């Protein structure tokens, strides 16, 4: 398996622009997580999905952030409009808890998208 | 509120020495995990210890769990330069079975 795939790996944009981050979880995994990592705030859980349904979006900072999971193999995190304080590394992770042969909630992380908003 | 807190925030040791990192948490857990993050990369799972276990080994890693003190420690023996990374503990939420909460991490530097 190729692991969790994220795109783009780097994104530089100007304030006010829309940003869309993409994630493909590991095939067969039923939970998907979006995190944001900064030096100041560490690793923050933004939202997570189980079986394509958003379960907890309490970490989404503002209405400017939205996430979707239209099917089991794809998710997006959108920021509109973007602001300089959104600059961070955004990680997607997936896990298989609840699936056959999956006994605990180990998370598999993608390589991240480094977002810079000028 | 944050579930896990690692200590120390940063640790610098010589190659060959042992490195110990601690994690404290606040509420009951089902299991506790440790992850490693190399610079510029995503987190990688290292080891999991269940709440009914007290100690677990994996290669040069030794994890202990004291549920009465709500704390865990990660010991890396005979450290190598390649162990330089940030280490995070993650505890599962008492409310949902698949969500975990990560601590702020310990930054480990192993000097060759």
Describe this structure in words.
Chain A has 118 residues and is mainly beta. Helix content of chain A is 0%, strand content 53%. In chain A, strands 2, 4, 5, 6, 9, 10 and 11 form a 7-stranded mixed beta sheet that branches. In chain A, strands 1-3-8-7 form a 4-stranded antiparallel beta sheet, with no helix packed on it. Chain A starts with a strand and ends with a strand. Chain B has 112 residues and is mostly beta strands. The termini of chain B are far apart.
Instruction: Give me the number of helical elements of chain A.
Output: 0
| Extended strand count of chain B | 11
Mean pLDDT of chain B: 91
Reported for the largest beta sheet of chain A, the result is:
7 strands, mixed
Specify the oligomeric state: heterodimer
Give the largest interface pair and sizes.
Answer: A-B, 25 and 22 residues
Distance between the termini of chain A: 36 Å
Helix content of chain B: under 10%
- The H/E string of chain B reads EEEEEEEEEEE
Order of helices and strands of chain A: EEEEEEEEEEE
Distance between the termini of chain B: 38 Å
In short:
The complex is a heterodimer of chains A (118) and B (112). Chain A is mainly β and 118 residues long.
Topology:
The complex is a heterodimer of chains A (118) and B (112).
Chain A lengths: L4 E3 L2 E4 L5 E6 L6 E8 L3 E9 L2 E4 L8 E7 L2 E6 L8 E8 L12 E2 L3 E5 L1
Parallel strand pairs in A: 2-11
Antiparallel strand pairs in A: 1-3, 3-8, 4-5, 4-9, 5-6, 7-8, 9-10, 9-11
Chain B lengths: L3 E4 L2 E5 L4 E7 L5 E7 L5 E8 L4 E4 L2 E6 L4 E6 L8 E8 L7 E3 L3 E6 L1
Parallel strand pairs in B: 2-11
Antiparallel strand pairs in B: 1-3, 3-8, 4-5, 4-9, 6-7, 7-8, 9-10, 9-11
Characteristics:
heterodimer; A: 118 residues; mainly beta; four-stranded antiparallel β-sheet; 11 strands; B: 112 residues; six-stranded mixed β-sheet; five-stranded antiparallel β-sheet; 57% strand
């Amino acid at each position: 398996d190729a692991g969790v795939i994220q795109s783009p790996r780097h994104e530089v944009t100007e304030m006010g622009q829309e940003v869309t981050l993409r994630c493909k979880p590991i095939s067969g995994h039923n939970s998907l997580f979006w995190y944001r990592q900064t030096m100041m705030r560490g690793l923050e859980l933004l939202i997570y999905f189980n079986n394509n349904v958003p379960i907890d979006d309490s970490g989404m900072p503002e209405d400017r952030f939205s996430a979707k999971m239209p099917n089991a193999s794809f998710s997006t995190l959108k920021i509109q409009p973007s602001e300089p304080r959104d600059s961070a590394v955004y990680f997607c992770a997936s896990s298989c808890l609840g699936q056959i042969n999956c006994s605990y909630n180990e998370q598999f992380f993608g390589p991240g998208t480094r977002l810079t908003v000028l | 509120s944050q579930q896990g807190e690692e200590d120390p925030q940063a640790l610098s040791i010589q190659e060959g020495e042992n490195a110990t990192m601690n994690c404290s948490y606040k509420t009951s857990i089902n299991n506790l995990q440790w992850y490693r993050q190399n610079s510029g990369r995503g987190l990688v799972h290292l080891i999991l210890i269940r709440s009914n276990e007290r100690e677990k080994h994996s290669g040069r890693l030794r994890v202990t769990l004291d549920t009465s003190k709500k704390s865990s420690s990660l010991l890396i023996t005979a450290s190598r330069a390649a162990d330089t990374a940030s280490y995070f503990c993650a505890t599962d939420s008492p409310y949902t079975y698949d969500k975990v909460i990560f601590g702020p991490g310990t930054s480990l530097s192993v000097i060759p």
